[in-house]
Design goal:
Layout (H helix, E strand, L loop, with lengths): L5 H7 L1 H11 L4 E5 L6 H12 L3 E5 L2 H13 L7 E3 L5 H4 L6 H16 L5 E5 H5 L5 H5 L3 E4 L6 H10 L3 E2 L8 E5 L2 E4 L8 E6 L2 E8 L6 E5 L1 E4 L9 H22 L3 H18 L11 H4 L15 E5 L1 H24 L14 H11 L2 E5 L12 E4 L12 H13 L4 E5 L2 H10 L5 E2 L19 E5 L1
Parallel strand pairs: 1-14, 1-15, 2-4, 2-13, 3-4, 6-7, 13-14
Antiparallel strand pairs: 5-12, 7-8, 8-9, 9-10, 10-11, 16-18, 17-18
Helix pairs in contact: 1-3, 3-4, 10-11
């Protein structure tokens, strides 16, 4: 039995039923108060297994988002249905080459939302969700799927990769690069952990292999591969021409305010070089900073959600305070770099507005807000409240006597204790030595519409009356 079996206890939990009842009755936002952080993944898995609707979970930090992303599959949600949506602020305000793997992870989540045939759970820190991105119709027509046995025109495929932001190199060793020699094309997709080698026989794809970029040795064959853009903003003649006019206008204003000097000269040279590359539709480091000029329409992950998607706010007040702190830091970084002539002080926002976006989204969709304290945000007013009495589990430090004392205390208070362990028989023996009555919950979960196949086959929940 796996930890998925804990969902069976979840189904019996009255507070879970209260949440689902409120959702079924049409509540726009259900506020769940008092739930300990460690229990959020457990309860979310139980709700998702019932509603089976695409869900966007917004939280306050990247660490918390990663924690929830890791927790959900433990409770039975298939890993391929749980996607992490990372922030990309470092691509905007820091110097150097972009982190293509971050771009690939973001685009992979957006692509999954676009083509999804099953409900998904997307987990995102607030700055990742608010970050602007390419429109859905651009992403839909800007990817490639290669399959063994299909014909390929190498020239057209290479041109497609260039239009998707990939850079031609002699040897592929990082994301966003590709090379061609003879009947081989090597490409390192932004959405892949390993580069891909496409081998052609004539015009037909004979084999697809992933390989190690350090040794150039094959690591295994595949029959098909998806290649997403390497950049979150794509260049074409139309958007480049319009962007250049917008950039030049703001550059003139900023240069006048700087009254000459070394910083003004440095800024003029840098931005003019960027403008030249944009005019030539050439991709370069820090191109993402110009996304608002190239894509004036404010598009974010919220625009990719299906109409019946649910929104989860993990601690709304913390979400807002963390966002305000991050926004302040980004403004300070932008001003600092612009004063040194390293960055154009843009009047265009890199993120969609916080409160307006959340309010608009909640007005169109249902949601759940988790808050430890009984308070609500002015921009996320609940119309149903469910209170839960919970607390984090204490650490016992390997002291079995302390564990037994706690179990007996819970038992005397009429509570059920469940232990998830990979050694259920040994645990039963130990509990028996302390005169604690316990039983193993054996067998697979009963088959019903709420059950989800689990990826974890080992841990065994033990139930205590």
């Amino acid at each position: 039995m796996s930890l998925e079996q804990l969902l069976k206890f979840n189904k019996e939990y009255s507070k879970r039923r209260d949440i689902l009842d409120a959702i079924s009755k049409g509540a726009k936002l259900v506020q769940v108060e008092g739930l300990a952080a460690a229990a959020k993944g457990f309860l979310l898995a139980g709700v998702f297994s019932h509603v089976r609707r695409t869900t966007l979970i917004l939280t306050y930090t990247q660490e918390q988002a990663e924690r929830i992303t890791e927790d959900l599959p433990i409770y039975g949600i298939p890993e391929e249905q749980v996607l992490f949506f990372p922030p990309s602020d470092s691509l905007i305000y820091e110097e150097g080459s972009p982190n293509y793997s971050i771009i690939g992870e973001r685009l992979a989540a957006l692509q999954a939302l676009t083509l999804a045939e099953q409900p998904l759970v997307i987990v995102a820190p607030i700055n990742a969700a608010l970050r602007r991105t390419m429109p859905r119709n651009t992403l839909v027509r800007s990817y490639a799927t290669v399959n063994v046995g299909e014909d390929m025109n190498m020239d057209k495929f290479a041109a497609l990769l260039v239009s998707m932001g990939y850079e031609v190199t002699d040897v592929v060793d990082r994301h966003g690069e590709f090379s061609r020699r003879g009947g081989l094309i090597d490409v390192f997709p932004s959405n892949s952990d390993l580069p891909l080698r496409i081998e052609l026989f004539g015009d037909e794809i004979e084999s697809l292999r992933h390989f190690d970029s350090a040794t150039q040795r094959s690591t295994g064959k595949v029959q098909s591969s998806l290649i997403l853009p390497s950049r979150e903003v794509l260049l074409d003649e139309d958007n480049s021409k319009k962007a250049v006019a917008r950039i030049r206008k703001e550059l003139e204003v900023q240069l006048k305010s700087m009254d000459g000097g070394e910083s003004a000269r440095r800024l003029s040279e840098k931005v003019e070089e960027d403008i030249h590359q944009i005019e030539q539709t050439v991709y370069f480091d820090e191109l993402e900073y110009y996304l608002p000029y190239l894509l004036p329409e404010e598009i974010s992950i919220f625009d990719y959600l299906p109409p019946d998607a649910m929104i989860v706010l993990d601690e709304p007040m913390q979400i807002k305070s963390h966002w305000e702190r991050l926004e302040e830091q980004m403004v300070e970084t932008m001003i600092n770099r612009s004063e040194r002539g390293l960055l154009l002080t843009s009047q265009r926002k890199q993120h969609v507005p916080f409160e307006a976006t959340i309010k608009h989204t909640l007005a169109q969709r249902q949601g759940i807000a988790f808050t430890l304290l009984p308070r609500s945000a002015s921009w996320a007013r609940p119309d149903a409240i469910v209170q839960i009495d919970s607390a984090p589990m204490e650490g016992f430090g390997g002291h079995m006597e302390a564990v037994i004392d706690q179990i007996k205390t819970w038992d005397s208070n009429g509570l059920r204790t469940v232990i998830a362990t990979a050694q259920d028989r040994r645990m039963l023996e130990i509990l028996g030595e302390y005169d604690v009555k316990a039983s193993s919950i054996e067998g697979e979960a009963e088959s019903n519409e709420e059950e989800i196949p689990s990826p974890l086959p080992n841990p065994q929940p033990l139930s205590f009356p």
